[in-house]
Amino acid sequence: MQDNTFWWRGGVIYQIYPRSFMDSNGDGVGDLPGVTQRLDYVASLGVDGIWLSPFFTSPMRDFGYDISDYRDVDPLFGTLDDFKALLDRAHALGLKVIIDQVISHTSDQHPWFQESRMNRANPRADWYVWAEPNPDGTPPNNWLSIFGGPAWTFDSRRQQYYLHNFLSSQPDLNFHNPQVRTAQLDNMRFWLEMGVDGFRLDTVNFYFHDQHLRSNPALTIDATRTLGAPKENPYTWQRHVYDISRPENVEFLRELRALMDEYPGTTTVGEIGDDTPLERMAEYTSGGDKLHMAYTFDLLNAPRSPDYIRGVLQRFQQFAGDAWPCWALSNHDVVRSATRWGSEECAFAYPRVALALLFSLRGSVCLYQGEELGLPEADVPFERIQDPYGLPLWPDFKGRDGCRTPMPWDDTPLAGFSPIEPWLPVAEPHLLLSVARQQDDSASMLNATRRQLRFRSQHPALFDGDMNLVELGEALVAFTRERGSDRLLCVFNLTSQPQAATLPEVREALQGHGFQYEISGGTLHLPPYQAAYFRL
Of 262, 344, 440, 505, which one is the catalytic site residue? Predict the structure, then answer.
């Protein structure tokens, strides 16, 4: 029997945003039975598992990232039995199931917070981050919420401020309290006992705060601006020294890893938004005693020149050691890569070569729903905006709704997603890119994705090999992947211009990936938006 303990190492994980994947009961919102209905499609892509964004009980102020019961399914998405049915079907199809865990904060409707805010003497009085006002009544320091304004809200009952890195309805838990850590690990054990294969950990570097509540310094001219928020947000004007990424976090990650090690074959992938994210990724995933893998916003941001991409890979190589990344180009929080990176490029060809690059990097991969279709960012009119992050910064930042619109299963007006008008509008340009339109077209983005994943699975060096950058000119991204005797050279032209480069000595050109190129006299001629793979 094959040892599948390390399935995640180099695995491809398909992210599902349940609200927008498939509506099974006709209420305009996607749900867990809808996900189960479409798992055969997901399995047909050739991915290794799925990551489900939150489906837990929640008042939905932040669409499930504000949890009021960690151990139950919100009725909007179904029941615990529906989740168990999803888990069983996924496993029958050979898909692992990773679920979100949002343990840094809760909803203000969670019983823990309802008790904590009653007074300063109750059993959970210290379960959240409470602080005295300054003598003039102002908040205790200058920390800011990512969603706008101070990270502190005054509570009249306790006559204190409580911390919230996001909405005021998402109070931060006090991880300095060992009871809080134990309670959250117990909540995670609940799902591990049910049979989930791992967790995606929301804001994994936000668990601890500076106990002295020191103010963050202002961003200096030469300092790196955090990639965890858009530049229009004042949150990016500070160096986040004291509110996140505290040293105590590392020890908690060891406690978490000890829990995961009780369930062989399970995994963790952490989300890191930090001033120096690649360094943090290396710190949190090295040594085999903390996170299994983590992702940052380095490739989820706007810069995308070949030089920038090489720089990200080079910096990670500097810090990596035995650390393990999980790379992504799109997710539920950022503008879709087909638009963010490809708006000035060929809409047909660019997404293909971008995904080929993603599938060839050293590390694991997260593929966001619809990315395999080449979906661009949807244009959601102001009157249909749902995201609480988007409203205060409109129109310079339109929030996250544009990447969360319904999955287009067919080209009917409601995209086969729901029989009624969905919670977010169907993007009309998406209908021409629907699954039904692309399914039987061998030249489609959908089948190009399947082809690339099949090619990847045939070359062990691509999912578990070492990586070293190769200099082939400013316009190309090139690197080797090596695993034992399997040594590959991967070259990508992400530009609209043909490129040429002198090749190192290669043994053979690999086929089956779907890209076109020519070789003459030891020179590689790579047309726009094409890739080439060689065995060294």
Answer: 262
